[in-house]
Amino acid sequence: MPGAKWLEMLLQHVPDRGAHLVRYYGWYSNRARGARKAEVADTEPVASVIEGVPEQVDPEVSRAARAAWARLIKKVYEADPLICPHCGGEMRFLAVIEEPEVIEHILRHLRLWDPRPPSQAPPEDDDWPINGQIPLTYEPLPAIA
Question: Average pLDDT of 70-88?
Answer without folding.
Answer: 83
